[in-house]
Write a structure and sequence with these properties.
de novo design (two linked rop proteins), binds zinc ion, 6 helices, OB fold (Dihydrolipoamide Acetyltransferase, E2P), alpha+beta, 246 residues, three-stranded antiparallel sheet, elongated, five-stranded mixed beta barrel, 2 domains
Length: 246
């Protein structure tokens, strides 16, 4: 069965001398592994369309639950990301999150849109790399149905100047209601941080890239969004450690 879909290459793995497997985040089929015959030959017509982080129109042949690439046409190569180690490291980490969380055989339109927009701003350098990391980490959790409760303190419903995010239970607690046992599970959120988290999680998609997070807020918020994600997904990403060490 021939299927045509748009997708982005998250990872590639060489097979034999000339072939490779490409892990693709596709619009219609979620994350799938596609066999690309002859991809590593210089003359391959699919070399450009199946490069890492390239967004392509893909025509795949599905036989016995496996996908074999028929043809590809690159739509966006995000070329500048390849030229910057830090950006490439962030893209690798975000790719790992997607590979871990996106189920196969299900449409992944919203998640793909989030990733493509993040890469677009990463590629053209119009947003700070760290800001894009925060936006992606928080928004992907919303897409996965793991958005924290952000209305107010889970005990008294107020929003005070000193709030905490319980990253294990995904809820807010204020400085008056927090108890001793909770401290280990909570990270502090000041007013600006909370406002930023609410904006990213609760705004319409079109708005989440159209604002700026100050450098000071980025520094404080980035550890919170990554801790929330890794705790909620119960997963440590080695690519995150690599990104942070650059
Ligand atoms: Zn309270």
């Amino acid at each position: 069965m021939l299927i045509t879909t748009n997708g982005i290459i998250l990872r590639e793995r060489p097979v034999g001398e000339n072939d490779k497997y490409a892990e693709v985040l596709s619009e219609d089929l979620g994350v799938i592994e596609v066999s690309v015959k002859g991809a590593r030959k210089i003359t391959s017509k699919n070399a450009a369309g199946t490069q890492l982080l390239t967004y392509s129109r893909l025509c795949v042949n599905k036989t016995g639950g496996r996908y074999i690439l028929n043809s590809s046409q690159p739509l966006n190569t995000f070329y500048n990301i390849r030229l910057d180690v830090k950006k490439l490291a962030l893209a690798a980490y975000l790719s790992d999150i997607l590979r871990f969380t996106t189920p196969p055989e299900e449409p992944a339109g919203e998640v793909l849109r989030l990733f493509l927009n993040t890469l677009y701003y990463l590629d053209n350098s119009s947003r700070d790399t760290e800001q894009l990391k925060i936006v992606f980490e928080l928004r992907i959790m919303c897409e996965l149905g793991l958005m924290p409760e952000l209305i107010g303190c889970c005990e008294c419903f107020r929003t005070t100047d000193k709030m905490y995010l319980n990253i294990y239970e995904g809820k807010l607690v204020c400085g008056d209601c927090i108890n001793e046992n909770e401290f280990g599970k909570c990270l502090p959120l000041d007013k600006t941080m909370l406002h930023t988290v609410r904006y990213i999680c609760l705004s319409e998609f079109e708005k989440i890239f159209s604002f700026r997070i100050s450098e000071e807020c980025q520094k404080k918020l980035s550890p919170v969004s990554e801790r929330y994600l890794t705790v909620q997904l119960s997963k440590v990403f080695s690519t995150l450690e690599y990104y942070k060490n650059i």
